[in-house]
Write a structure and sequence with these properties.
Layout: E1 4-10, H1 18-25, E2 31-34, E3 43-47, E4 50-54, E5 67-70, E6 75-76, H2 78-90, E7 97-101, E8 105-106, H3 109-126, H4 135-143, H5 156-177, H6 185-199, E9 203-204, H7 206-215, E10 219-223, H8 247-252, E11 261-269, E12 272-274, H9 286-296, E13 308-310, E14 312-313, H10 314-324, E15 328-332, E16 342-351, E17 354-356, H11 363-368, E18 370-377, H12 394-407, E19 411-415, E20 423-425
Parallel strand pairs: 1-10, 1-11, 2-5, 2-10, 5-7, 6-8, 7-9, 11-15, 14-16, 15-19
Antiparallel strand pairs: 3-4, 12-13, 16-17, 16-18, 19-20
The protein binds inosinic acid (IMP).
Inosinic acid binds next to α4.
Length: about 425
């Protein structure tokens, strides 16, 4: 029988805890594939009592016998990738097979420099708050058809020609627009050749790999990075990342069609967080935000920045369910809410045109949208030991059921703590 594809996608602004959901379902998956983003992501996985943070490697990399894919839609920072691989080798945890698409684009040193310069020039009001990992400038080159792909690192002549062309332009921009020193061709060329030598054993065709896996009846998991509200098309533009973090990105970013996708799992926290600038309708007041940040350890895995915190936004969550055709939701960090007297959930917005339950990523809409909250009773008990839905306090059950009712899909996994076993499975 032909295998199937499941997708795991962020339903908020990233950092929903996707890594740990991959961990919880990894046993039934044979292939884990990343399809967009780059080292801007920070996936925290706790396995065998040890915490790992991956920026580029798919979370499945810790599992022996799995195949992990970095798809053509990903932008690869070779230094970062080689560092993550080296770390796994040192710990003898390089037990999965890794394939990197030759068509994935390479984040070059000038992309990182330009990311920083562009942010500086945007100024305070327009700053996106990027991770400065060179993501935006690398995707710019991809779309303007001058980017360097992983396969180009394997061919000295092609690399020389493409790098020379790119550096000519980039150096003009760096020196004439940003008043920076031009970069040296020789140094970057040598570095890029070395990347090519080190990465060549992993380079392959991800679309073909997935097709073969499906023909063998295997299950493929698409592992999203960032989240729906950071999607370049469907997110809160321009305060977004430069790739499609929604389901469509999974298809173009790997070279697959939609018919094999049998399950789209959204991941959302029991509250909301956002790193970087941009609209956040349900952002909490300072006192509540500090409380959530402390309880939830809400600091960026990639940049260490404190995350902005707020109440769960069901208007935005329903939107994420819609644009991705999500079939089920994993709700993480429910334990963080223990101890609150009352919990607020945003169920609609008041806008200039009246009340609405429909989200829109447009800034004109979001700038004037005011959240309308429903107040639900909190619970005081520590829920870290709960392993069944029935063992949760009734207020916590009510909270989960309320969310399910509004978004119209079942919550099939609930996170109740940071440890691997601290999950309640309800059919995932
Ligand atoms: P970039 O992806 O580095 O260009 O950053 C663009 C926006 O996306 C910024 O607001 C970042 O904070 C945000 N962002 C990028 N990656 C992540 C992530 O993995 N989690 C949360 N926010 C992210």
């Amino acid at each position: 029988m032909r295998g199937k594809i499941e997708a795991l996608l962020g339903a908020q602004w990233g950092d929903e805890g996707k890594g740990r959901v991959v961990d919880a379902i990894a046993s039934r998956v044979d292939v884990v594939a990343r399809f967009q983003g780059g080292a801007n992501a920070g996936h925290t996985v706790i396995a065998e009592g040890e915490k790992h943070i991956f920026h580029l490697l798919p979370s499945g990399i810790l599992f022996p016998g799995k195949t992990c894919i970095i798809g053509n839609g990903v932008v690869v920072d070779p230094d970062q990738l080689l560092e993550e691989l080296g770390e796994l080798q040192r710990k003898h945890k390089d037990r999965a097979r890794l394939i990197i698409s030759g068509a994935a684009h390479v984040v070059m040193p000038y992309h990182k420099l330009l990311d920083g310069m562009e942010e500086r020039f945007r100024g305070v009001g327009r700053r996106i708050g990027t991770t400065k990992r060179g993501i935006g400038p690398c995707y710019v080159d991809k779309i303007s058809r001058c980017g360097i792909r992983v396969e180009d690192l394997l061919n000295e002549d092609v690399l020389r020609e493409k790098l020379a062309y790119n550096l000519e332009i980039k150096n003009e921009i760096l020196s004439k627009v940003y008043n920076e020193e031009p970069l040296s061709f020789g140094k970057i060329f040598e570095q890029a050749k070395e990347w090519g030598e080190k990465l060549s054993p992993f380079v392959g065709d991800c679309s073909l790999e997935i097709e073969r896996a499906l023909q063998q009846g295997k299950t493929v998991l698409l592992e999203g990075a960032q989240g729906t509200l950071l999607d370049i098309d469907h997110g809160t533009y321009p305060y977004v990342t430069s790739s499609n973090a929604t389901i469509g990105g999974g298809l173009t970013g790997l070279g697959i069609g939609p018919s094999s996708i049998s399950n789209v799992i959204g991941v959302a926290k029991a509250y909301c967080t956002r790193v970087g600038s941009g609209p956040f309708p349900s952002e909490a007041d300072e006192e509540t935000a500090n409380w959530l940040r402390d309880r939830g350890g809400e600091y960026g895995a990639t940049t260490g920045r404190p995350r902005r915190c707020g109440w769960l936004d069901l208007v935005a969550l329903r939107y994420a369910v819609r644009v991705n055709s999500m079939t089920m939701l994993a709700l993480t960090k429910l334990d963080v809410l223990s101890g609150l007297e009352k919990i607020y959930v945003c169920t609609s917005y008041i806008t200039e045109k009246g009340k609405t339950e429909n989200f829109s990523g447009g800034s004109a809409f979001l700038e004037q949208a005011k959240p309308v909250y429903e107040e639900l009773p909190g619970w005081q008990e520590d829920i870290g030991e709960c392993r069944t839905f029935e063992s949760l306090p009734k207020e916590a059950r009510k909270y989960v059921e309320f969310i399910e009712e509004v978004i119209g899909i079942p919550i099939t996994l609930i996170g109740v703590g940071a440890e691997r076993e601290q999950v309640i499975k309800r059919g995932l």
